[in-house]
Structures are given as structure tokens and as C-alpha cells.
Amino acid sequence: MPEQTGVLDLEDLRSTLAEVLDVDVAQVTDTADFAEDLDVDSLMALEILVALEEKYHVTMVDENPQHIRSLSATYALLLEKLTSK
Amino acid sequence: MLRTLLRLTLAALVRLILRPRVRGLENLPPGPFIIASNHLSFFDSLFIPILTPRRVHFVGKQGWLEMPGLKGKAQALFFRSIDMISIDKSSGAGVTSGLTGALDILKRGDVVGIHVEGGRSPDGRLYKGNAGVAWLALAGGFPVVPCGLIGTDKVHPVGSKRLHVARFTVNFGAPLTFEEDHGRQADRRVRRTVTDRITQAIAAQSGQEYADIYLSTVRERMKQNSGA
């Protein structure tokens, strides 16, 4: 499970991802593999990048969509972006 | 002119030395369409365009055009000369730009070729298709011709530094059309359904066993296991 920080709220991110993916929040577990478990294709991963960019005001579209593989991976990537802002 | 000459020369050499069986050319429709194929060998993106009687822009890895040194420059020149288009899969912006570039080519009336698995199969099985092909088909209403390659991995096995003389087969299936879902490329569930139909049609042409998992997932797991 990702370590919760004050910079980024894990539950808020979970809700955001569930909304973008149009799935129940409970399905976005910490380790669910987006591609294999939630049927997120590469283009959906792009939509996630754009949604995160808009919500968190960080540049995400230059990131590899394949790195958006799970809540944990997305959290780590976003946290890195936010802390280096 | 030079491009046509190179293409014809390569086609003649491949036909003479490797004697490929090319079946189903009557299935290629007039006008723009997408060739969706499996991927077994580095040379698949060359074999399909030169054995198809239409100008085919095959989608390849950006890395193929960016190899260092003289050999890399020659390789890039070669791939460009056979109309390869590249998609930089390492960034969201690169994927978007690559797909819109491919869509423009189709709108111009040409043919675009894509390996649906996004890479070479490591074990001969056919892996889950990526959704880019469905996005293109749905965005422009273009037909998709499923293409099954058989035996190209014998011509150039993974890791081999040279070509081996072996016959291979290119099977073109009947075109698939998705008129009922035209314009629904933003719906990922529609993309999935369409991609799965295309992948099943490729499996019917290639005779491969289907592995219901993305190739990228398999590679990621292999990477993790080798690092463990």
C-alpha cells in the first residue's frame, strides 16, 4: 500500500481514477492491475494522464501510459511530480 | 521512384529466396483500410508491405528510427524508404501524435499496417490486442483486414543476427467493418469489443493459440521475475 502523504491524498486519487474509469471505487484496489483487472487499454491510460494533469496541475502527457498500471504506481508517479514541482 | 524501385527489388528478392505463400489478396478492399496482424519476427513490418499490392505504411517502434551510429542511420533510412511510420509509445503525447498521423494517412486513401499485440510474441502465442487499431477503425470508419503471419520467426528467430532461408505464409482474411459503432472510438468498452473481434480474426488466419493477456504485462512480469 502506498505511504500516505500530506501532498497527495490516496483516497481522493482512488475516487478520481474510479470516476475516470467509470468503475466502482472498490474495484480500484491498491494493487489492481489496470490493464488486466480493470480492462484499461493504452488509450484509457492516456485519458487518465490527461485527467490527472487537469486535476493536479502537473504535466503528465509526457509520461509513459504503460506506467499507469495500478493505483500504487499512479500514486508514486504523481507524488514524484508534485514534490518536484 | 527510388522508393518504388527499392520496394520492387526487395519483393523480388524475398519472393525468389524465401518463396512466401501469400493468400487472400482478393480480400483487400479498394480505398483506405487497416491491415491488423500478429507479430513473430523483426522483419514482419517489411514482409507485409512488400508483399501487398498497395502502398502500406506500417506502424513501427520509434526506436527503430533512432538507433545510434552509421548502422542505425542506415536502418532508419531503410524503414523510412518502406513508408514506416513511428509511434513513440514512451509518452502519452507520442501515442496521440502517432495515432493521429496514422489516421491522416488513412484519410488520404492509403493503407496502414499495425501489429495489434504491440510487439513480438515471445512464445508463438497470440496476445491480447492493443486498442489503437480499434480507435483508428472506429474514428474513420475504415475496414480492417486481419492478417496472419506464419513462420516468419523461422526466417529471423529472436536474437538471430542473420536471415534464415525458410518459407513463410501471409494470410489475409475477409475485411471486418464496424459501421454500427462508427464514431464510438472514445468508448473503451466498444474499443475492447472491436479489438477482440479483430484479434480473433487474426488468430483464425495465423492458427495461433490465444493468450488472454497483454504482451506488455507478460514482459513486465518477466522483467520483475528476472530482477527478483
Automatic annotation (TrEMBL), chain A:
Carrier domain span: 4-82
Coiled-coil spans in chain: none
Highest taxon of the lineage: Bacteria
Name of the molecule in the record: Acyl carrier protein
